[in-house]
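Worked example 3. Consider a protein that binds MTE.
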Amino acid sequence: MPVTRIPPVPSSEITPRDVWMNRRTLLAGAAGTIAASSLPGTAWAAPVIEPLSAPRNPAFAPSDQPTDKKLATTYNNYYEFGTGKADPARNAHTLKVRPWTVEIVGEVAKPRTVGIEDLLKMAMEERVYRFRCVEAWSMVVPWVGFEFNKLAALVEPTSRAKYVRFTTAARPDEMEGLRASRAALDWPYTEGLRIDEAMHPLTMLTLGMYGETLPNQNGAPVRIVVPWKYGYKSAKSLVRIEFLEKQPVSSWTKAAMHEYGFYSNVNPEVDHPRWSQSRERLLPGLFASRKTEMFNGYAEQVASLYAGMDLKANH
Ligand code: MTE
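Given these inputs, the predicted complex is written out as structure tokens:
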């Protein structure tokens, strides 16, 4: 069901200026790191950061300590807010994350639109996952969410559902990267998984990190996290999930087909055409100091999904 969007009305038109100026300052204060002067002319809703704690699942506890929260929330890739690592933390406060709905459609018996409040009510757990970016850096993050297959169960995928496409928000009014003169990617950002990858218990629909709801720059209000694949498969700020018969083409594959394959499994033996994937830099480390692990360390759980496949051809 398509959602009607109401264009933002500048607060200056509906509120006396002194009240409005005061509100901007309050909002900036609530946002924590955002200085009032950096807010645009419109009084944007502040990012929604609320406690979101859930019991930690002890089965997912890598030997590494979680990355410092400040680093994980200020060194980001979210091209809708700019291509620099510091851009998302600086610019993503303009994304309005309430109200929010996710449409789940395609090869399913019961298509539906789910509101963010309902997603937040689903049983959550915390899992500490290794997260490996294609750019050869990695982090260790305590994510809060639930297995994607629980969401899929609500819509009952049919036997024709072989793939899942994830589409993320594309709102030029709220995303300055979409207003840039040269598009970094073909918006909206889309990613895809094979159905068995999507339904695998490791694949997490994620609503929080470090015991709080997701900051906008990390994909608020809801994203996917697929820990054995390069980070770009983990699409942020989801608005649409489609179950498909045919393999979808992702934004990164469209941008550079020979560099970003459909599978994108972390694989130290298959280099990116422009750099090696054999080692990685665990942030905040300065050098590529440790060996990349096959499937990012999750081989025991996921290697069987690719039995008999040529992982170089299907990179
Ligand atoms: N999702 C959207 N919508 N837009 C993006 O640019 N970047 C991807 C992924 N999801 C991206 C996205 C990439 S390249 C990475 S490495 C991860 O988000 C980064 O997630 P993090 O900032 O939470 O570490």
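Take a moment to read the result before moving on. Residues 1-41 have pLDDT under 50 and may be disordered. The radius of gyration is 20 Å.
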